[in-house]
Amino acid sequence: MSLPKISPAELQRRLQADSAVLIDIREPSEFAREHILGARLVPLTAIDSHDFDTQHDKAAVFTCRSGNRTTMNAARLLAKGFREAYVLDGGLDGWKRAGLPVHFNAAAPIDLQRQVQIAAGSLAATSALLAWLVSPGFILLSGFVGAGLVMAGVTGFCGMAKILALLPWNRKFMTA
């Protein structure tokens, strides 16, 4: 089951005509950093069937960073009761490529997934360097980080993301 795509230009026209509602399914920390003006934040992890009871007469346009997350969850989003539902072609990135305006907050931290990538990559690179320069035993840290990433991918639980979410710069942007 898939959602048909709508172009950024067509979405902008429909938003101006008040015939569509734009629903950003990313997490609050991602939304805080950058989003399309007028988008409503409803994270995929917290979406409820009654979130849109007063807007079922409008077309729903779901979006995320690239459109991939939205497309992968199309069946779940279609079940929300809209008479018309779309995915924004290219997501936020497509909207920006079309030259349309976004709200950007430079004070908000980069999204948590990128923070995890930076932390895990830094730990792995540092341990490899220490293993080469100091002691071969430091290679165990790279192995631990790699095993943690595999476990996060298999189970969907990322302990590093949970720890990073508790850091002060992330805490104030974790709630909508």
UniProtKB/TrEMBL annotation:
Gene3D superfamilies reported in the protein's UniProt record: 6.10.140.1340, Rhodanese-like domain
InterPro entries cross-referenced by the UniProt entry: GlpE_sulfurtransferase (IPR050229), Rhodanese-like_dom (IPR001763), Rhodanese-like_dom_sf (IPR036873), YgaP-like_TM (IPR021309)
Keywords annotated in UniProt: Membrane, Transmembrane, Transmembrane helix
Coiled coil: none
Organism: Ferrovibrio terrae
Name assigned to this protein: DUF2892 domain-containing protein
Residue ranges crossing the lipid bilayer per the database entry: 118-139, 145-167
Domain Rhodanese per the UniProt entry, residue ranges: 16-104
